[in-house]
Pentatricopeptide repeat-containing protein
Amino acid sequence: MKNPSSAKQSQARKVESHLVTFSPAPPVFLLNRVIETYGGYPEKALSLFLDMNRSGVYASEVTFASVLGSCGAMLALCLWRQVHGLIVKYGFVGNVILESSLVDVYGKCQVIKDGQKMFDEIKNPIAVSWNVIVRRYLEMDDGTKVGFMFFKMFQTAVRPFNFTFSNALIACSSIFALKEGKQIHGVAIKMGFEDDELPCMLHMCASFGDLLAVSQWRDPVTRPC
């Protein structure tokens, strides 16, 4: 039986071979396809992208989205700064998806200050943007900042994802903010996320040693509304 990983890489090589046919200016859609196919090989995808950029191939927003999506696991900060610079150069500043992806990458590279700076430059952050910054602060064990960004999100009209609530509740457990955690869970209930967030709420109450609350939350009859 053929290894799926090997099959995918073989497919990528076949598509990449077509780039030579169109050299020195292969169509952007073909470049996008090669980068997407190399999704499991971030070093190769990013290397190919940079090579094509040096060859003068015009990169579209879709190209950058493919690069950011395919190479999100590659923690090479110097290379990501190059990609960031190219996004600015090509005039794609203002694309909220690309900007949110950059926030994500900076967070993964543990340069959260740069991630926050990038986030602050987003004119109208969407739910993805907020979830990314909240998640990355949680991974940095900065529960206070998680709470700050989470409550700041509610000053906007953005509707959070259910897992954004989960991240905020986990952060409350880490900084012993039971009151804030209950407030967050109350909002989750009002927005219809009660069942999704119940495990996190139980974990938070247990972390504080509030066994009575754990018992109440487990029972639908006594569960606070």
Observations:
- Residues 210-225 have pLDDT under 50 and may be disordered.
- Residues 131 and 163 are 8 Å apart (CA to CA).
